[in-house]
Amino acid sequence: MTEIKNNFRVAAIQTVSCARLDENLREAGLLIARAAQAGAELAVLPEYFCFMGHKDADKLAIREMPGSGPIQDFLSSQARQHGIWLVGGTLPLDNDDPGRIYNSSLVYDPSGTRIARYDKIHLFGFNKGQESYDESVSIRAGENPPQTFMAPCGRVGLSICYDLRFPEFFRALGQVNLIILPAAFTYTTGSAHWEVLLRARAIENQCYVLASAQGGKHENGRRTWGHSVLIDPWGDIVDSIAEGPGFAIGDIDLQRLSDVRASLPALKHRTM
């Protein structure tokens, strides 16, 4: 049974990933170590932390079967080595569709045991001028319901990037103390909507939100917004980082959570 702690330190790790798996894993390992040294008991990597290819289909070459592979081995060993809870951003997992992968977020406990999995269900599409994206070309939408797990800060809900735009998804998680969102928001959409959407999800669900992002100019020409952040249940920013590798860090304070919910019991006032 997981012991609940009144203060639980968490970190949102930010990377600028490239098309070389080994280099990305090495960079992630260094950032995980730095976050753990700063007191993080739970760390979250960003979406695509392990690989940002030149073409959508490039990720198919590094897909792994669930339960085995160098990316999963890396995540398990990092959680065990540092004695932390580790949310592995996303990685490509195999399924019965040879042309598409699941974009999956895996959670490991301090023993290195995988305890949760969420496959991204909302696939990003955007087309404006010369900028165009269609995740459904290489990604199969997950068929799983919203996923949660228990950590020392209480119940934690899992989400990925584009999920952020669908508030009903987060309601379906039930009452959680922390929402985790690894992402690779584009510079265009991130500069317009990233912070306001994250703060809205924290305020309306009266919980902490920890969002880890890709943040910078990638070798494939893509530019991501970054601004990894921890937001409290009142919508206040606890810590953030703008661009470049690094991390945002802060505490999940259960007293703060309780005070917000007691002073404005919106969750109890819901009628639907």
UniProtKB/TrEMBL annotation:
Domain CN hydrolase: 8-254
Superkingdom of the organism of origin: Bacteria
Annotated TM spans: none
Keyword set includes Hydrolase: yes
Keywords noted in UniProt: Hydrolase
Cell membrane is among the record's keywords: no
Gene Ontology molecular-function annotations: hydrolase activity, acting on carbon-nitrogen (but not peptide) bonds, in linear amides
Annotated protein name in UniProt: Nitrilase
Organism whose genome encodes this protein: Pollutimonas bauzanensis
